[in-house]
Structure formats: structure tokens, C-alpha cells
Amino acid sequence: MRIVVDAMSGDHGPGVVIDGAVQAARDFGVEIILVGKEDALKTELARHHTQGLDIRIVHASEVVEMHEHTMAVKEKKDNSMSVGMRLLKHGEADAFVTPGNTGAALAAALFTLGRIRGIDRPAICSVWPASMTPAAFVDLGANTDPKPENLVQNALMGSLYAEHVLGIQRPRVGIVSNGEEEDKGSMVVRDTFKLLRSSPLNFVGNLEGRDIPKGKADVIVTDGFTGNVILKYTEGMLSFLVKFLRRQLTAGALGKIGLVLMIPGAILMLPSLLLLLPNVRRMRRTVDVREYGAALLVGIDGNVLIGHGRSDATSIRNSIRTAMRVVDGRIVERVKDGLQHMQIGLAA
After folding, report:
1. What is the 3-state secondary structure (H, E, C) of 117-171?
2. pLDDT (tens digit per residue) in 220-232
3. Contact (CB, 8 A) for 222 and 128
4. What CATH number is associated with residue 324?
5. Which domain holds residue 57?
6. b/e per residue, 106-131, with b = 16+ CB within 10 A?
7. What is the pLDDT of residue 345?
């Protein structure tokens, strides 16, 4: 398996991206193709012991910066995103990963790879980081003003992602609304409800905001505006809760005294605490967005994954792991087959 990594994009420069890519090559035995300015990448790669690892560099002379408009993709023909996606298009790689500008990545994917026939608008799909059970969330920001047909296509693609990447048989599909009743929500949501109810998908109805973390659905469907707001709010809330608990435990003189008094008891309980460590680590991974790394741009005719601009090395490593799972799940091929089966939005 060959994964192309856009090594020039993101907030932290090529050093952090290469750190994560080297970790992935070492941990997963995957071939990594780093795309970017060759001299800079060679300098960063020289910091690592790469003997025995399958890593190579493909030169791209330009970079689409995080602050630039999507038109930069057209203006900078030799940008690292487009060069990497051309490798994917020509069969020289199986997936492409970037921590770069989301709009630019979407534009480059449309220009270079195009949409899957029958998909009107691509969407961003990823694992939801705050649910009792794993769930696919779509759309996380690609399409802020969809039509009902677009949301049904998103439901299909999210369902296939949940089944073939997350391993959930016959995943339950729900749509985000402001009430459980069929007549709640915007006109788009209500029209989508009717279409989903008559589809072969395992549709379980509307999801209120409080239902999302309860595990009531395996596929959470919404428009890109709402999905992006929910995602960013959840990430901020998880970060807040960790900091809040840490601050409250050490707040004031009594809190500090309490922690000191707990130390002898903690030492006596050390064997029990060690037994709990695997559960604690598992819980931490569940709510850590870095664990999932990148989100899949579903509806594009190729495996394109977009990570956070602030991705660190751990996030890059896990983005590559997610890309490998997407390749194994053959999502693009399954979406094409699923569209034929459902006959949704097929081009004439």
C-alpha cells in the first residue's frame, strides 16, 4: 500500500508532518511518498533513522498556504496538493493525506480527480470523537447548503464508511434535527427524512443534539455548516472538561492539601491503579481527535483525506492509518456500487 503525504501543508511545517510519516512507516510497514520542496524535505528526513523504511520524496515547487483562497490551487500549478493527487490519479498511490487548507484540498480533488459519477457534491466524513459507540459523521464542512438529495447521498456514503471502515454491520442512520418528530427541522431536513425513510438504508429517524453522544445512530447526517459547528464545539468542550477537572482538583489550599494526603493511599492502591491503566488509556483515545487523524473526502473519485491544520506527529501517523483502513475498505468502489443499487442522482 502506498500513501502520499502532503508534507508542506499544515500549521507546523514539514518537520512535524515528516515526524508522523516516519512513525507510520515504522509502525505500519506502509510505503510513504512525501510531496513538497525536495531540499526542505530531505533536510527534515535526515533527522530520522529511515534505514529499512519505504519512504521517498516527490518534488513540488509550490505550496498552498493555510490562509490562501481556493483559487491558489489553479494559480500554483505545481503545489504539493495537486502534485500528490496526480500521483493518486495515475495509479502511483492508493491514498492521499493532507493537513492543509480544507477548501484548497477540496478544489484540488475536484480539479484533479473529479467526483464519483452520480455524486453531486462531495462531503467530509470522519469518526465522531464523543459517542458511546463509534459513529461516522457526515458532513463536517464541505457542503454548507445541500439539497435533500445531497444529504441522502451523504447518508449512503457514511453508511458504507461505517460498515467497511468501522466494521459496523447494517449501520443505523440518523439525521440531525431540532426534534425527534418527523415534522421537525428545516424544509431540507424534513424532505430528507422522507427520502431516507423510503431508501434501503437502516434509517432510525431524527437525532437531537443530545442524542449524538448517546450512540443512537452509527451514521450521523447533517449539512456541512451544522456539522462543522458541532465538531468544533465538541472538540472545544472535551478540551475544556480536561482542563476544568485539572484546575478544580488543584484549586485552593484545601485542594492541594487533599492531593498531598491522597499520595500515601495512592501508593497502597498502586496495583489496582495499574490494572485500571488500560481502561484509562482506552478512554483517552476515544475522546482524542488525534486518534482518528484525518477525515475522508467522500464522493471524490479517489481516497483523499484531510486532517487538522494544527495536526501534530501523532495525528499525522493516525491519519495515515485511517487512510490505510479506507483503502482496505474500498470505499470509492463501494460508493459506486451503492449508487447503482439505490439509483440516487445517477447522471444521464
Report:
1. CCCCCCEEEEECCCCCCCCEEECCCCCCCCCHHHHHHHHHHHHHHHHHCCCCCCC
2. 999 999 998 988 8
3. no
4. 3.40.718.10
5. 1-119+290-329
6. bbbbbebbeebebbebbbbbbbbbbb
7. 41
